[in-house]
Design goal:
Elements lengths: L1 H30 L19 H12 L4 E4 L4 H17 L5 E4 L2 H6 L7 E4 L2 E5 L5 H12 L1
Parallel strand pairs: 1-2
Antiparallel strand pairs: 1-3, 3-4
Helix pairs in contact: 3-5
Length: about 140
């Protein structure tokens, strides 16, 4: 019984210390002009991920077969797109390549590192720029 009272007293003391600390934090924040800063959820790449956008991304992911480059449009993404186009031309295939820059659609593929290459709905490479010869081998393996 005596231990329980001691534990309760310690808990009350800890809670009082927490309240005091939070009050100090608020007063320090007020000094810098940041009063009661609202916490907003942060998303990777500053994306706006609501249920509707995620549903749209899943639908776009399942749309038809084709070749897609996933990435923000940086130099490496463009290099992968050009190498892929050259590989498709070499094999005499349709050179239409979709460049997906919407991060919710990229995330729908499970890709967290770009650039990524998707062929017929399957992620075949991510996080690196493939050479034309490598892409030719992948296309021959997948499409025959």
């Amino acid at each position: 019984m005596k231990e329980r009272k001691i534990n309760q007293a310690a808990l009350v003391g800890v809670n009082a210390a927490k309240k005091k600390l939070h009050k100090k934090e608020r007063s320090i924040m007020a000094l810098f002009g940041r009063k009661n800063k609202k916490e907003t959820p942060s998303y990777c790449c500053s994306g706006n991920y609501d249920a509707e956008r995620i549903t749209e991304a899943e639908a776009a992911k399942s749309e038809g077969a084709g070749v897609k480059v996933l990435g923000s449009g940086c130099a490496k993404c463009n290099q992968l797109k050009e190498a892929t186009k050259a590989a498709l031309e070499q094999l005499g295939m349709d050179t239409t390549i979709e460049h997906v820059t919407d991060f919710s659609q990229i995330a729908a593929y499970g890709v967290m590192t770009t650039p990524a290459l998707v062929i017929d709905g399957k992620v075949v490479s991510y996080g690196k720029v493939l050479k034309t010869d490598d892409i030719v081998k992948i296309l021959q393996k997948i499409r025959g």
